[in-house]
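FW: tagging you since you asked about this chain on Friday. Here's the raw sequence from the shared folder, copied in full. Didn't touch anything.
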Amino acid sequence: MSDPVTNPGPAAHQKIDTSVPHSARIWNYWLGGKDNYPVDEEAGDAYTAVFPGIVTIARGSRAFLRRNITYLVAEAGVRQFLDIGTGLPTADNTHEVAQRIAPESRIVYVDNDPMVLAHARALLYSTPEGATAYIDSDVLDPDSVLRDAARTLDFNRPIALILSNILGHVADYDQARSIVTRLMDALPSGSYLSVNDGSRGVDPGFEEAQDAYNESGAVPYNLRTVDEITAYFDGLELVEPGVVSVPLWRPDADSPAPEPVAEHGGLARKP
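HL: got it, structure written out here
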């Protein structure tokens, strides 16, 4: 277990607002988790009433991340991961997938949600050979993220940057692009970028449900076009099959034929 750990304390619990739905807790609810409140279940049920496919998207996103991590460890030889906007712990977290294959893997999780902070200890169990750390920080402050991550990760060796369903929370697209650029500029050659986000222009039902959610008072999540998601990888070498609907990215050989959903993602290597 690594040193740079922010342990949850009373202040963290006091900041949890159980009167307003929160995307991380709603996402946890859709994934079948228990770390949510009635307000989150109500918002999640209202969403699925308009667009039942969101549960498929949530689970497809988690499966995409698992396949990304598996490729990075087993085929690309990556042993370091910076997972920003990790959300609440569920099955197949980044460190679990990576350390099952390579126990020496080192993972830094980043989030600024007080409920995630309260569950930090659940994320911090690591194999003796590796390390798992949690940073209480914000994707909007990439310099702080990089500074704190350097306490656990070696920035002279390749690092996989994981941005799973987090860039949609950055309201301004140009700012989201600049954040990705700043983070990748700090990583050495041979590092990787993994991004997946909800996509606009694919499923009108999804867009209707998301627009209604954004007007509910919860923290908005902005759908991006496929071209906008693809542009996050500019200057990098996309791993085949490129940016696709997440179920279509290297599906498991023994799984049923995948159906595309309105969530796109990809993985790319820094030259």
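FW: The radius of gyration is 17 Å.
HL: agreed, and DSSP finds eleven helices and nine strands in the chain.
FW: great, closing this out.
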